[in-house]
Design a protein that fits this description.
Strand 2 and strand 3 form a beta hairpin. It contains 1 helix and 3 strands; from the N terminus they run βββα. It has one domain. It is of the alpha+beta class. The longest helix is centred in the last third of the chain and has 12 residues. The protein is globular. It has a 3-stranded antiparallel beta sheet, with helices on one face.
Length: 71
Amino acid sequence: MAKLNFNKVWKSDFINTKGHHLVGMVWPIKSARTGEVYDITMHDKGFDCTCPAWKGKCKHIKFVEKKLNAA
């Protein structure tokens, strides 16, 4: 079953996502704390995540940004 995502799209601090060749890409990231898998998606305006974090850019998005920035 698809996870509902009501989170906002967070602009990247490192990557210009507008027109990026990975827009639409989804990265499944497993939570170290709960074992739950959350999907991080790149959009033209940034990233979103299916985790329940509501108070800013979550650590799952930051993880994907850091890995992409290091590549």
